[in-house]
Each structure stands twice: as structure tokens, then as C-alpha cells.
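[step 3/7] fold_predict: job queued, chain A
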Amino acid sequence: MQEGKNIELEMYEIATNFIAKRYPTGWGGVAVIHTEDGQFLTSVSIETANASAVLCIEVGAICEAHKLNARVTHCLCVVRDDENSPFKVLSPCGICQERLRFWGTDVKVGVTTPDNSLKYVTLEILQPYHWTTAYPIEELERYKKE
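[step 4/7] structure written:
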């Protein structure tokens, strides 16, 4: 991390600026992922008339991180209902939590708060009873390809 930079706030700024540019009117949403090597990867949800073909907003950036073989450190999803609405942080759904957990329990994710403040927690805090705790870490590590 560069001296004096706040990754979490920078991710929020990237997200809100991207939403304003990509979605000048109406609904908008973007995910930003930060990687251990300092990259910021962004993605949006797929727009389709068939709701069953839609993917979470984070999926594109998660796939990009895998493609680059880059370790994810942070993930943030921001939406707004329309151009006159405030931005909202969405906690990752259960499937995206599973996808992000590939990089470990210390991945920090933006979470929804009652006062709409910017807050990140680790997956370990978000998932205190995750199913993987039933297995030795060595067993789970075999699914990672370095």
C-alpha cells in the first residue's frame, strides 16, 4: 500500500465514480476488488432480460483476479437506486463469500450497515461458523493452484 493511502476509502471512490460514469441515470452498481499486488479490479452485473442469467456484481472482478493469479485482499460492492439516490454498500451474498474465501479468511469485505457507513470486516468475522472449519487447512489448500 502506498504511504498515506486508505485502500478502503479509495475503493469506495472508485466505485462511486464508476457508477456515475457507467450509469448516468437509473440504477447502477459496481464491485471493486483490491489485490495484494496493488491492483483495483472492477466489474458490473450482467444486464439481461432473463433474470436466471444474471450474476452477482462481484463475479467479473473475482474472475479477473483468478485470471491474473492475483490474491484478493478486499472486496466492495456499491449500488444506487437511481441518479438521485444515495450510494449503498451491499455485503457479499453467500455465494460470493464462498468465492472470496478462496483467498482466505482475512479477505476484507464491505458490509451493509444501518447508518450506511463505510465498514469492512474480514470473512472470518462475517462467517464465524463457516463449514470449512470442519476440515484441516491442508485438505482445503489442495484446491489452490499456485
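[step 5/7] annotate
The chain has a mean pLDDT of 92.
The longest helix spans residues 7-22.
exit 0
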